[in-house]
Structure formats: C-alpha cells, structure tokens
Amino acid sequence: MDSLAALVTSMRLRGSVDLLCRFAGMWSVDEEAREPGTVRYHMVLEGRAHLESGRTHIDLAGGDLVLFPHGAAHTLRSSEGRTAVAYPVTRQAQGELTRVDSLTEQHDYDMLCGSFELGQSHSLLLQSLPEVVHVSTQGRDDCAWLLALMRLMRHESAQPLAGAPAVIDDLSRAMFTIVLRILMEQGAFTHGLLALLTDARMAPAIAAVIDTPAEAWTLERMAERSRMSRASFARHFAELSEMTPLDLVTSLRMEQAARLLRDTRRSIELIGESCGYATHSAFGRAFKRHYGMSPAAWRRAGDEPNPS
Known about the structure:
- By secondary structure, this protein is α+β, with helices and mostly antiparallel strands.
- It has helices at 3-11, 123-126, 144-157, 164-186, 193-198, 203-211, 219-225, 230-240, 245-263, 268-274, 280-291, 295-301, and strands spanning 14-23, 28-31, 38-46, 48-53, 56-61, 64-68, 74-78, 89-94, 97-102, 109-117, 133-136.
- Helix 3 (144-157) runs antiparallel to helix 4 (164-186), helix 7 (219-225) crosses helix 8 (230-240) and helix 10 packs across helix 11.
- This is AraC family transcriptional regulator, activator of mtrCDE.
- Residues 203-301 form the HTH araC/xylS-type domain.
C-alpha cells in the first residue's frame, strides 16, 4: 500500500451530501464556519458562480470542485451579483439530501454540497492544506475520473436509491483521495506532511514512518532511509515543516492512538503498546501533552467505539 493510500485508509473518512442547489438569475448562499475535522465541499455541475472566503475570490464554472479543509466561512453567489442578497427558494427532501430551488421554471446553475468528516485526529494531514482548495476539471485529462465521480455522486444522492448512503460514503473517500493525488502531482504542497511526502529526497523516510509509526525511529534511522546524512536530512526537513522529525513521529503515533481509542474497545495499555510506548504512563503523558486530555477522557468524549 502506498503512503497516500495508507493515510486515507487510516482516516476512516466518512462522506455525506446534504444539498442539491438549482438556481437561476441572482442568488447567494452563505456558509458558516465549521468545526475542525469537517471539510465542507461544493461541486459545480453546471453554470457559473463566484466564491468569496476571506480575501479569497474565485470564479467557478461547471466541473469545478471547491473544498474548505479548515471549515472557513464563505459565500457563493451568482456571477452577475456583487452583493449577498437572499432570494426566494423552495426546499424539498429528495433522496439523501435537500433540494433547494429558486422560484423559476428554468435553472442554469446546478451544485451539490456535502462534507467530509475526518474528526480531530487528522489535523496533521489537514495542516498541509490551504484554507480553500479549488480544482477545475475542465479540459483536463488527469481530472476525468474526478468529474465522473462528481456526476455519479449527484446521481446517487438525488434519488431514493437502495444503498445510496453506503455508495456515497465510498465515493466520498475516492473523491478526497483523487483530489489529494491531483494536488500532489501538481506540486501544490510547499509545507507540512504532504510536502514532505512529495519531496523525492524525504519521501522514503516519511513513507516508512507513516507505514510503521510505532517503530523506534531516530533521526539517524530516518536519514538512512532517505540515504542522506543526519545533518542534511534535518536541514531539508526543516525547510518543509515547522515540526522536527521526531515531532512528526509523535504526531503520527498520537493520531493513530486517537483513532484506536475512538474506533475500538482495545484497552488503553494495548493501544499504547501498539503505538510504540513501552509503559502505560509514558503513553498517557505523551497523549495528554498532544491532546490536552488523558486517553481515557478522549475515549469518553468520543463516539461509542466499535467492537474490535
């Protein structure tokens, strides 16, 4: 399994769609800020629109996908309008979502809106992403599969089909992975985990740590994996990340531990051992430094774990 696949698989990412918007004329939609770990997205299937999020302004067209990895508040509006104005709409439950239509017979804008749920135990990956991710599929052979997925998600979500929620969940995971792959191939990451993973010199060591974070990693071992001297490895690592190599190891261990605490009924001691900690107390101290609470408190605060 390659490193990107390992990261996405470990996320236990869940996806959902909630709005199908079909508008005409002048319109606008305001989205409030979301909690960390919820990545809101909009896929434009037809028509044109304008996006505003802080200082970011983007013109959108059919085939565009826009994500908000840090839950930023934003406004989407018709390309013709220049102010956010509320226009009359109708709302109707349809399949797995709510259809929002402007009060016109014809619609020239079609947009599907949803969320990726990653939870708070994936901050390391999300830190690599900008406030707004915009991918345009128009005229791009490398985005053909992404556009096909977008259309399939609309089909599955807009009708009461058997098994649609499960299909949408799987399609969401595939879509998120493809977006990351496209950005990595474009060299869009300049800092953070994904920048390290796409750097030819750093990738061997980073991939190894992602694959086995519980190993007894040292700076020397990581440098050996990348066939670099200890000093060169540390210097190049610092150019791509604010954390140290050993901080990365700890963060990956903690994110793995948080997922196991949430998703399984394993004992805290066994989880600590599986994440590279020889004693219960060492694991507890490391976890509390990272998340500000004990492993037991994290488990109580999370969702009911699944049997394992």
